[in-house]
Amino acid sequence: MGWKSILIRPYAKYISRKIEKMAKSAVSDQERIRQEIVSKAEDTVFGRDHGFGSVKSHEDFVHQIPLRDYEEGRIYFDRVVEGEADVLWPGRPKYFAKTAGTTSGSKFIPITRESLPNHFNSARNALFHYGMQTGNLNFVDGNMIFLSGSPALEDTHGIPTGRLSGIVNHEVPGWLKKNQVPTWETNCIHDWEKKLEKIVAETRDIDLRLISGIPPWVQMYYEQLIEVTGKEKVIDIFPQYSVFVYGGVNFEPYRSQLETLVGKKIDSVETYPASEGFIAFQDRFPHEGLLLNTDSGIFFEFVPLEEIGKSDARRLTLRDVEVGQNYALIINSNAGLWGYSIGDTVEFVSTNPYRVVVSGRVKHFISAFGEHVIGKEVEQALQKAMEKYPAEVVEFTVAPQVNPVEGLPYHEWLIEFGKEPEQMEQFAAELDRQLVKQNPYYEDLIEGRILRSLVIRSLRPNAFRQLMKSRGKLGGQNKVPRLANDRTHADALMEFAKE
Q1: Is residue 429 part of a domain?
Q2: Which CATH number fits the domain that encloses residue 395?
Q3: φ and ψ at 439, to 5 degrees?
Q4: What is the pLDDT averaged over residues 334-361?
């Protein structure tokens, strides 16, 4: 054990106890946060427009504040971007997290001084809690790499603006900066392939103990490390590598391939960060679900998925949610987000404490025939099929084929395999069976001969990487949606289909 881990242990223990306390006081913490943020924003433009002075209960809150996504709230967001103060939150934001919009250009998500601790402290707290739960704090004695977007920021009417992962680099404390790789100059490289080459050169000979990033881009890092060093496994390059931190996508489809590249099983810590806020993190090892971050400046609401878009949609608080139900996630925060739909759907796996899994995206689903298949269902079906018929999946996406050349319509799975199953037909049949088990609407369509069983298109190696590169979205936090109700991604990937 090194001197850093010895010095940090008492503070990590304090943080871990706070997390355990938060898990027990979630409902009361949420009520307090709702009252605090409404009171703080009462004299803002939004607060006056929505009568914050008369909001005394959650019922008042729902009555006064409509549900909105970014586009629906642009009347306020645009004023903040133009430099106006006291619009959504007192003062002006410290940063803008810039993300891709869906209909009218980029989104500029405000990060205020009050909300910044939610983003940085939550990630730190998750790691310290992991250390106390497992006894492994040794990762702080070595180097850590965070595969992230560029920390180079633009100026938007006096507000530094960039990717959230890049913004976080500006808030890293001194003790961690000395352990953090790659260098600032390398991190600022926008071309992912050039950046990866430099990262490998800078890290191949150091004592790397923690790696963080989205699984497909971490896989590229592993592969290039092995190619450049001539070593057989990543663990041969970094003997004390012990913690992998990830978020943004389901790790399970990647687990087998990544563990093969590493050469052993590595502890993993799952997090749920978003530009709008740090939502949840893993608090048990092993685990099912992520502990909701209920005492960090965000007041959560949950709308039953089937009610999204309805004028009378229920907005539930923690005390009302049920295990096993899918909800659209709504946040209200000290960043000035109000009744804001971030586009994710979650499912509670526990309400004591409140733990969730990300079940999909509000707009990422397949319902071309009324089946409403969601992300969690396709990921779990694939995992079950892989358990019965061993295979390694690099990446995949699913889309409806509504007008096939012949026969009934079907769901088309475009899969890039690291290792194909030996019995592809049986694998496809098992995959279909598993989806039928999870989704009764899909089952009805299959049995009613509205749909035929799914079809797998096996893609050539690096298909997804080549597609992302052609779109200028290779690396960073970019990823192809796992499923869509149209064929935009599927048709583009057909270029890489095997004969």
Answers
A1: yes
A2: 3.30.300
A3: -125, 105
A4: 92
pLDDT in tens, 80-119: 999 999 999 999 999 999 886 544 468 899 999 999 999 9
CA 417/CA 427 separation, integer angstroms: 13
Give me the number of domains the chain comprises.
1
**Are 399 and 483 within 8 A, CB to CB?**
yes
Residue 354 lies in a domain: no
373-378 LR contacts (CB < 8 Å, sep 24+): 373/398, 373/411, 373/435, 373/439, 373/442, 373/483, 374/326, 374/345, 374/483, 375/250, 375/345, 375/482, 375/483, 376/347, 377/435, 377/438, 377/439, 378/435, 378/482, 378/483
Instruction: Report how far residue 284's alpha carbon sits from residue 413's, in angstroms, rounded to the nearest whole number.
Output: 33
Range of the domain at 413: 375-496
Q: How many Cα atoms sit within 13 Å of 166 on the Cβ side?
A: 24
Residue 286 CB-density burial (10 A; 0-12 exposed, 13-18 middle, 19+ buried): exposed
Domain-embedded: residue 422: yes
Q: How far apart are CA 340 and CA 432, in angstroms?
A: 35
In a domain, 491, yes or no: yes
How do residues 148-173 score in pLDDT, each as one tens digit? 878 889 999 999 999 888 898 888 77
Pairing of strands 243-247, 267-274: parallel
Element holding 465 (H helix, E strand): helix 463-470
Q: What is the DSSP string of 141-206?
A: GSEEEE-------EEETTEEEE-HHHHHHTT--HHHHTTEES-HHHHT--SHHHHHHHHHHHHTTS
Helix then strand then coil, in percent of the chain rounded to 5, is: 40, 25, 35
What HEC string does 52-108 produce? HHHCCCHHHHHHHCCCECCHHHHHHHHHHHCCCCCCCCCCCCCEEEEECCCCCCCEE
